[in-house]
Amino acid sequence: MIQRVVRYGLLGLGLGFFPILVLLFLGAGCAPKKAPRAPRVAVTTARVEQRDVPFSLSATGSVEALRTASVGSQVGGVVTRLSFHEGDAVQEGQVLIELDPRPFHQALDQALGALARDRAIAEAARNEVERSRVLHDQNVLSQSEWEQKVSDADASAATVRADSASANSARLNLEYAAIRAPISGRTGRLMVHVGDYVKATTSDPLVTIIQPHPIRVSFKIPERDVPVLQRYRANNPRVWVDPDSGQGPLEGRLVFVDNAIDPASGTLLLKGEFPNQDGRMVPGQFVDVRLVLYVAPRATVIPSQAVSTGQQGAYVYVVNPDSTATPRPIQVERTVDDLTVVTGGLKPGEIVVTDGQMRLSPGAKVQIRKTGGGKR
What we know:
With 376 residues, the chain is of the alpha+beta class. It folds into 4 domains: 43-50 and 298-369, conserved putative lor/sdh protein from methanococcus maripaludis s2 fold, CATH 2.40.420; 56-66 and 212-297, Beta Barrel (Elongation Factor Tu (Ef-tu), domain 3); 70-100 and 177-210, CATH 2.40.50.100; 102-176, Helix Hairpins, CATH 1.10.287. Helices cover 28% and strands 37% of the residues. It has 4 helices and 22 strands. α2 runs antiparallel to α3 (143-176). The longest helix has 36 residues, at 102-137.
């Protein structure tokens, strides 16, 4: 009897407790859910800086030698000796090529012999004039005979002068048999060899010598840039070139500005001069040129990759202290290499996004990545 009462009591308790469990379960299911956190956008940033920024004009230039000499021969003859190799550095006055000197020695000996003979004749004629002067003064020698004596002496003197000129010419030809370097520099391709016959005063050079340093680079700027060049020309503009040798750019000075614009191309020719002691630049080479007209002090700059362009113009994403990103319009003056000069919209020290802007929206949280690829 007691067991029956207990069974029915537990059964009644279970039937009364079940609705309570159902209500508790439904109440738990209807509780408000917590909103998930928005993920942070990983970005790369850079700090707005102030630095001196050059204002420059860019162009493509060609390297040219300051001095070039095409060496030829002023006399004809057979090459007997070469005293240099192709590509050697030579000094002004150095003997490069020697021709057979024997014909020139013979011509000089003949000219000297004729000069000595005619000098003796001229000396005899002068002595004859002196003797005849006394006879003429004593009226022993007629006027016509006296004039003939003087004429013979003058003719002999003229012959001596002609023989002297011939001897000097023969002596000069003997010197020309040794062909010398007219300038100091580096030799190019040699066009003759030992045993070749060289013609006199030919237009074909035997070898070409260039002066490798200093060296010049010629380049052109468009007509629209001429006014700014004229404005800053008195500031001693510097010229920078990059020979693409992995050793960095070279600095030179502006030494030539043409006096007229080429009407065919609408450009103005300029030239810069460089030391080139290491021979990094070679005539005929094409190089990138930057003509630096002036340097703007303490300009506000940011990496160019931070700048985006929208319907309202240029803008950047600025990272706030709470790690949110906000778009901000800026005023761009110009771009120099990988930097953009900003005249308004940013202050030095602010942080701008340089990579990851496409994934950002106003107010988005950001996670700043280090340059090496890690996060911080």
